[in-house]
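Lab manual, section 2.4: Encoding a predicted structure.

Procedure: take the sequence of the chain (186 residues), apply the prediction step described in section 2.3, and record the output as structure tokens. A sample record is shown.
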Amino acid sequence: MNATVTPLGVGGFNLDDFQKNRGWFLVMGILLLIVGSLAIIYDVTATLLSVFVFGWTLIFAGACEALQSLWQPKWGGLFLQLTVGILAVVVGFHLLASPVAGALVLTLLLAVYFMVVGILRAVTALTMRFPNWGWVLLSGMVTFMLGVLIKRNWAVSGLWLIGLFIGIDMIVRGWSYVMLYLAARK
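Recorded output:
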């Protein structure tokens, strides 16, 4: 990987790799635009679906972690690993059993996620200055503001807010990928 200054960026940016793989930016952008639009149209369904997916993910990951801890019983972290695995399974089952309450909890967690990811995207755009970095900066700013809005209204609108904001975030990210594709064509 080239870590020298290029005409379009600094740091770890490599113009040849960027242009060679530009088609993937377009594909990812279009997919995010489509899925994001569907998430906005069916916001309650997208919210509940995200709760179910997260619940099943916790159950699967927790079961794997608990089983793995039992395969290495002399490991010094057996109790911690087993406890974390069991906790993940229990939380996963609670999310599946009560998806509305789970949506409210996840809404608050999503607020924190969006605020942190928004800051990280903005900082990355400002420090790397890759082609059309302004779109990624905009994406970061929008994502951060969505996090702030979620936090302010999470108890009232938690059932539909996750799906709506995930859809908005996907659409903005989708456009940022399309813009990166267009920059790579030049």
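Check your result against the sample. The CA atoms of residues 100 and 159 lie 7 Å apart.
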